[in-house]
């Protein structure tokens, strides 16, 4: 269906909230270049997935409240724009204006009708009913426009210029002409659009509507979906002759109370809600952010007082969801725009960059921006340009709070809960899921690890990403969502300050007194640049006693001493490999990260388990419903699954398979990884097992096979060491934190030492 015209912006695709029903975090990670469509699942399976995604986040309100939720609105002056989750009561709603209310009261009641048992026979009847509501609303709109006070907070455009100039319902009852990957095409009973009845209808813009020369069809079709705040669905119970308005939004599902279509008041209530929709004037009223049309974006220009216009080049990653983060990562190029704005930053946004858009929950609202600011530009970490919370024209954050109960206590929340599914009664109620749209731009673009050219290239990129993970830990953050979509390989290696375990903040209080008389040498050593090493990577400079002195300084703290030993070991391993300032991979995406300084602030870890199921550790996948302290070993396992995905989905793996059996192996591996992940361990065993012959496979598989075998074994040993240490009773929060750092450093040191041992074999396969 074509979209209504949008002033100053290109047309936006309208999307259905159930067109992408995936369990949160479970969307198949992919880039457009390597995406392989899944077998479309049935509508029944989609409903099951949607129920899992929504959880217990079902709410219901009276019709008047629903009409206010959908009405154009402005934040009241007395409410601070700093509140990311303003309640509905903090807004002045157009539908409550005196002139609009007067127009509502003059609308005739839609004629009575009857529904029959044969559902299909009701489609034309319902279309006629909805169209009669639209006609009445259009007349009321014209009436309200004439009488609306010119000095008030709202203006009504002529009907031809509003968001929906025309709206017509008609019976459809067949498959749409497009669908979302992983779901069967939808088959709506009725369709509403701004054009005349059409044989073919689309949720997204059909390809012949894209301007000539614009290679942005993918962006046009998908960008508006993850950035949309809500979608409205009308559900009719043909047997009970009742109707509900269903608002799917980033925090779940909000519904109207059941409306009886046989009652005059019920038909008036339907008309009332439709009127709120027909009052929409612009994209913001329709739940779309005002700074983008899905292809072109305007973002703060850092260090100046203007906006910068950016245009989508390609989609790097998209995780479709209704409730949840709905992460979208886009590669963009910038162009100057003239609009003025205030800024306090000092970096340049010109040139190619990555834009990430997501809907973090209230607990994770600013975590990614804080993580990037703290670790900006360190080894394995992207350069942070800007982060901001999307706002509406009135300055209010673009959040789902208007569709949820106001923040209060559980007793108040209970009065708004809706239980459409019997199983929900058994769930422990959780508070409303408040979310807002957060945007982050980083300077370094690249591709995912499926595009590595060889096993050595992949294994080296993994090491650099692991060092980025440690850089985040040194800044005080545990990443907790390492996936194929969250490791970026720049098109060319980028310069970064050399990684140094000597610079770890844990050592800061002990480091400075070690050689106060030679502080300049120590400072240079922290950059890992001016240290002389022998053929085995051992330090031979006068600073060689740094670790001896550091161990002596911490000798009375056995937990910290083990961290020092692991840090020294990793430094030597990196020196042997010649890791310097050339960085080949970056770890991105921090909106599920956790601050380590508060990780053990209570007896029970306060943060929920996070991650993407395909890449979670086996331990994490089996404890999703129980208390569990997510730890560095889980992230290290995620690196293994990321490496496996990058190996199996690299095009060279299939193209380089020497025989049909090997090609069938690869196709089977891909199927096992892109499903629910239950067979991924078998795939790892197939590739890594010493008794399985991989000689007929591509050099990438032959190169990674021994590395996977040893890596898997070392991680199992590391996990046992962690469990034994963790179970020692009486450990203080500080000591638990030291355990985290020790295990993280040991895990990366294990990998670096393995890489050094196998470097000649891996390099020979390039």
What does this molecule look like?
The protein has 766 residues and is of the alpha+beta class. Among the domains are: 296-402 and 430-445, Phosphorylase Kinase, domain 1 (2-Layer Sandwich), CATH 3.30.200.20; 455-496 and 581-764, Transferase(Phosphotransferase), domain 1 (Orthogonal Bundle), CATH 1.10.510. The chain is built from 21 helices and 22 strands. The strands form 7 sheets. Strands 10-11-12-13-15-14 form a 6-stranded antiparallel β-sheet. It is elongated and about 90 Å long. It starts with 42 loop residues before the first helix and ends with a helix. The model is unreliable at 1-39, 206-224, 336-349, 517-531 and 536-542 (pLDDT under 50). This is Fungal-type protein kinase domain-containing protein.
